[in-house]
Amino acid sequence: MSSVPPEHDSPEPTLADTEESQDERGRIGYGRNERTSSWALGAVLIAIVLGIGAYQWWFSDDGDDSSVNEVDSPAVGKEAPDFTLQTFAGDEITLSDQRGKVVIVNFWGSWCEPCQREMPAFQTYWENAPDDVMFIGIGSKQDTEDRARAFADEFGVTYPIGRDASGDRVTMGTISQNYNITFFPMTYIINPDGMVSSLIIGEMDEDDLDSYVQKARGEVTMTLPAEMAIDRREIG
């Protein structure tokens, strides 16, 4: 909830309110810092425009392979931060308990159109994937609980999925902070040893998922114990 600060009478000018102080301190486009401040403002505006353009290119439907972007992140090759997620089904799932499997950790928001478009592919892949593959869906704290649950219900998601509501920050949960989530969707592919194999920004289809799973699986040779086999129809 936003609040408006109370108004206060200010009989004395502050900061650069007077012509003398403006000349002394400088202001954008004026005073002794005219050239420096104008260039600084221009650089900021250019950075903003470039940032908007990069974002639009990243998530546009035009261009070759613009919807899927594997990121050359420092996280790749390192151990994925452990977490425990409370799922909408009322269960808890812990990442470190999934050793021996390829884990697809997908960060999403209900308002995010690429997230909406990729959900059917995630669910279909989950239903047909072998037992050494696990999906975990992590919803944004910016969603309300009702909106996040409605999103999962709309797409019939049966793999473990919940909302990252932990932590003190208003708009970002603890798991998202630890994984440096800056866009939606963002998906981490974690190999059977618990190391980050790939980081992908943007929506994926079943072929993309299969490629990244094969890559992660190929990084480690490990036999899945029989007791780790699961029935996907019973997981919500």
Could you characterize what this model shows?
The protein has helices at residues 19-25, 34-59, 113-128, 145-154, 174-178, 206-218; strands spanning 69-70, 84-86, 92-94, 102-108, 133-139, 161-163, 186-190, 196-201. The chain is an alpha/beta fold and 236 residues long.
Give a brief outline of the structure.
With 236 residues, the protein is of the alpha/beta class. The chain has helices at residues 19-25, 34-59, 113-128, 145-154, 174-178, 206-218, and strands spanning 69-70, 84-86, 92-94, 102-108, 133-139, 161-163, 186-190, 196-201.
Question: How many structural domains can be distinguished in the coordinates?
Answer: 2
How do the helices and strands follow one another from N- to C-terminus? Answer: HHEEEEHEHEHEEH
Structural class: alpha/beta
Please tally the β strands and state the result: 8
- As an assembly, this protein is single chain
Work out the radius of gyration.
24 Å
CATH class of the largest domain: Alpha Beta
Main sheet record = 6 strands, mixed
What is the 3D shape?
A: globular
Which regions have little confidence, pLDDT < 50, spanning 5+ residues?
1-18, 27-31, 34-38, 52-66, 221-236
User: Strands across the major sheet, in which order?
Assistant: 1-8-7-4-5-6
Q: What is the helix tally? A: 6
The overall average pLDDT, rounded, is 78
Instruction: Report strand %.
Output: 15-25%
Tell me the name of the CATH homologous superfamily of the largest domain. Answer: Glutaredoxin
CATH topology of the largest domain: Glutaredoxin
Helix percentage range = 25-40%
